[in-house]
Specification:
Elements: E1 8-10, E2 16-18, H1 66-80, H2 109-134, H3 150-162, H4 167-176, H5 185-210, H6 215-251, E3 264-265, E4 275-276, H7 280-287, H8 297-319, H9 335-343, H10 361-397, H11 408-448, H12 466-472, H13 475-493, H14 495-518, H15 524-530, H16 532-539, H17 548-572
GO cellular component, one term: endoplasmic reticulum membrane
Family: Belongs to the membrane-bound acyltransferase family. Sterol o-acyltransferase subfamily.
Region (Disordered): 1-67, 249-310
Length: 573
């Protein structure tokens, strides 16, 4: 696996930072300085190598001229030390350039600033051209869509979020239900919540179509709906698991009737196969059983059973306690905890999260300003570069009834030309959407809620296959799918099928989003995303695996081409 995630270490301020590494390729060879305070040259007389010297030199005969002896002594001392010469010298050493693949230099923040300067130049140039052509700095075709039925959107979005709150009272009902009844989470709770989530999703997908909203309003509502669906699912299924864990822990108060089956540990990145929690003490006891006298077997057996029960109670009790250790289920079943989870920039529910001590107001205000700046740039790119290309292609493909329809070769030519015009605008759009969501919006909510874990993405731009990209480009969604889809299904259907199911659900979600935006159900996005699986298999063959530069170039080419291709197909076909 070619993941580039760096090891981290915890600093004195309890913030995780990359752990310092010893450079593999030093940028400057170390040369020791052994000069005397008075600046005199002190030759090395011990005969050993110093600094960067090899320790070998041509011996000078005792009867050599003094000039030869002086030059030999000077060469030895210069190789052993570094001192200021009478004439300035340039230090030459074995080192690589910053962009060399073997370089340890990783700070390219200046290019990030250059990216924003380039976008600013593009925006200013575009506004000046619009002033020249129309007398106004910006076109209003997309800007006007933002205010159409704005109150409809606000009310619908509030009701959509509010209807997720039914999860909390249902969880209290499932917890209070007696063991074995139809309203426990294991019996009827899972089915009730699953049916409710399906009906809830269908309702809020249909609302924009019934109210005839613009595509901008549909984009906002469908994306927010998907986020709330994953939050509601995670909250319900994790608390449902905790309610069953609590019931089992209570049942152990009467060991004669309680189940003593060991607790199952679901697969995680550290434990990919999933294991059964067993007592190490019981394992040691079975290994030493041959040394126990026969008349003590009964006593030893009772002690072993007691140890197993204690271990099982410990495992179950630890499961009911937050990872930080300050809150224990069911103390988290409160309205404040639920509202806090809805605002936290994560899709996976936990009883408790790490928090920062205070809000960095300067950071918060800068992220809010950057969010609106990105939206401004996205609108300019859409109006000036994307929409005109799609409009022109649509007019050429849908000619007037009197004119002859374009031939198949002309259709392909128009489609190829449109895709070529959309490549660069969609690359910028993709980068800006990434920044506005994962850096600025999520970062702002993390600052507001004191949410300390800001790891919303990794260095996905260095991805060498689509599996690596799916792990690193959208960490919140990846964590949700791994926890609630992959890990939940793998014990029953195996690793390969669980991977396919995870990609399938992700592809269906993307297709729903594209269908709501374009009001067309074509399946292009679904097919393209499912094609990532055979591409991953191809990229991991011995002929392709390990060629990082080649695979990263292929990743970027397929990403840029795929975005323009999918948009063209949905709009024009």
């Amino acid at each position: 696996m070619s993941s580039t995630s760096a090891d981290v270490s915890e600093g004195p301020d309890r913030i995780l930072r990359p752990r310092p590494r010893k450079p593999v390729h030093s940028q400057l060879s170390h040369i020791s300085n052994l000069s005397e305070p008075n600046g005199a040259l002190d030759p090395n007389t011990n005969g050993h190598a110093t600094g960067t010297t090899s320790g070998r030199s041509t011996p000078v005969p005792p009867d050599a001229p003094q000039s030869v002896k002086a030059l030999s002594s000077a060469r030895k001392q210069v190789r052993a030390e570094q001192r200021r010469r009478l004439f300035p010298t340039i230090e030459f050493a074995s080192r690589v350039s910053h962009f060399d693949p073997n370089s340890d230099y990783r700070d390219f923040h200046g290019f990030f600033n250059l990216f924003w300067i380039g976008l600013a130049i593009m925006a200013v140039t575009t506004m000046l051209r619009n002033v020249k052509d129309t007398g106004y700095p910006m076109r209003v075709q997309i800007w006007g869509l933002f205010t159409v039925k704005l109150w409809h959107l606000a009310i619908a979005d509030f009701l959509m979020v509010a209807t997720t709150a039914v999860t909390l009272p249902l969880q209290k009902i499932f917890r209070d239900a007696p063991a074995g009844s139809a309203l426990t989470w294991a019996k009827g709770g899972t089915a009730i919540m699953s049916i409710y989530q399906v009906l809830w999703l269908a309702l809020w997908i249909a609302v924009p179509f019934l109210l005839d909203w613009t595509w901008t309003a549909q984009v906002f509502l469908i994306l927010h709906t998907m986020v709330m669906l994953m939050k509601m699912h995670s909250y319900a299924f994790y608390n449902g698991h905790l309610s069953e864990t609590e019931k089992r822990l209570r049942d152990l108060d009467d060991p004669s009737t309680a189940s003593r089956a060991p607790a199952y540990l679901y697969p995680t990145p550290e434990n990919p196969m999933g294991t059964v929690a067993t007592s190490p003490r019981s394992a040691n006891g079975s290994a030493e059983q041959h040394t126990v006298p026969e008349n003590d077997h009964h006593h030893e057996h009772s002690s072993e059973e007691s140890d197993e029960l204690s271990q099982l109670r410990e495992v179950l009790a630890r499961e009911l306690t937050s990872p930080i250790g300050n809150t224990t289920y069911p103390a988290n079943l409160t309205w404040w905890n639920y509202l806090d989870f809805l605002c936290c920039p994560t899709l996976c529910y936990e009883i408790e999260y790490p928090r920062t001590e205070k809000i960095d107001w300067q950071n918060l205000l800068s992220k809010i300003a950057a969010t609106f700046g990105c939206i401004f740039l996205l609108t300019i790119i859409s109006e000036e570069f994307i929409l005109p290309a799609l409009t022109d292609a649509s007019l050429r493909l849908n000619s007037s009834p009197a004119a002859a329809p374009p031939s198949p070769s002309e259709v392909l030519l128009i489609l190829a030309e449109t895709i070529s015009w959309l490549l660069f605008p969609f690359m910028l759009t993709f980068l800006l959407v990434f920044l506005v969501i994962f850096e600025y919006v999520l970062g702002a909510f993390a600052e507001i809620t004191h949410f300390a874990d800001r790891h919303f993405y990794s260095d996905w731009w260095n991805s060498t296959d689509w599996m690596e990209f799916s792990r690193e480009w959208n960490v919140p969604v990846y964590s949700f799918l791994r926890r609630h889809v992959y890990s939940a299904s793998r014990p029953y259907i195996g690793k390969g099928n669980a991977t396919v199911i995870t990609f399938l659900i992700s592809a269906v979600g993307h297709e729903i989003v594209m269908g709501c935006i374009t009001k067309k159900l074509r399946g292009y996005g679904f097919v393209c995303q499912m094609m990532q699986l055979p591409l991953v298999v191809l990229q991991r063959t011995k002929w392709v695996r390990g060629r990082k530069t080649f695979n990263n170039v292929c990743f970027w080419c397929s990403m840029i081409l795929g975005l323009a291709l999918i948009c063209s197909l949905y709009v024009l076909v």
